[in-house]
Every structure is written in structure tokens, then in C-alpha cells.
Amino acid sequence: MPVKIRLQRHGKKGKPFFWIVAADSRSKRDGKYLEKLGTYNPNVNPAEINLDVDGSVKWLQNGAQPTDTARAILSYKGVMLKKHLAEGVTKGALTEEQAEEKFNTWLDEKAKAVGNKETRLAEAKAKAKAKALEAEKAVNEARAAVPVEEVAEEAAPEATEEVVAETATEEAPAAVAEEATKEEE
Hints:
With 185 residues, the chain is of the alpha+beta class. Helices cover 65% and strands 18% of the residues. It is built from four helices and five strands; from the N terminus they run ββββαβααα. The chain has a five-stranded mixed β-sheet. The mean pLDDT is 84.
């Protein structure tokens, strides 16, 4: 029975969530599996991966073939390195302690790199939020300044219209009186 380490899709449309499983290569993508090795959530940045490293190494040593995506995930989490170091121990090139030490130093470096990426993303997000807040403040200040000017402009035409109307009403009776006197003559 050929065994594959592959992703099994879960989640809803547009929000994928994957299980990393060891399954018979003839089974369906989301069908029966032999063992669940971990989870992979690509919806967050950086992607969240939970993986049983020792179980994955065991399956790889027993001949399981990972798919391309699964191989990338296993490599990212250090499973492929641990398998490589385990082969070195069986051949006598390394001792168990040396292999464990190399793997732990690699894990520490990887954790630092992921931590740096998370802090960079958080800083970029904070800068974008601050920039958006400043832009919103500028827009709000512009909106606050515009109504004051518009109110002054709107009041001025109304005042001139009132003055014109008052003069017209004052002139109208005089004009009517003049017309009346002309007609009488």
C-alpha cells in the first residue's frame, strides 16, 4: 500500500483549512486516512502550522512520499532536516546528541526568523493604521473648515437678496404712485 503525506481540505468556501495526513494514495482527497499528523491554516499571516514532527519522521522513514505542498510544509517545520539527521545517525556519521543539538539550534534560528517576521508585520500594520488615522483627521478638519466658509457664503447671498427685495418693495409703491398720477393726468 503506497502511503502519501498530503493535505486534506476542510473549512468553508474561500476559507481553506487543511489537515496534514498520512493516507493511502488511492483514497480520495478528503477521504479515509491512516493518521492525522497536523494542521495547516493559510488564512493568517504568517501561516499557522501545527505538526507532529516525530510522527511525520516515522512515516517518512517507513517510505511515505509527501506531495509537493506537504514537502514544503514538512521542510518549513524541520521534518526533512530531522529525517536527514536520523539517517546520519543510523550510518554512524553523527551521534544522537549531535543530531539533536543541530536540530534544536535550527529550531531556535527558525523561531527567531518567524518572530522577526511577525514583529515586522505588526509594525507595518501599526504604521498603516496611524497613516490612515492621520488621513482621516485631515479629511475631518477639511470638512469642519468647509461648512464655516459655505455658511458665510450662503449667508452673504441671502443678505444681498434681502437688500434687493427691500429696495424693490420701497421703489414699487413709488413707481405705482407715479403711474397712478400719470393716468389721472
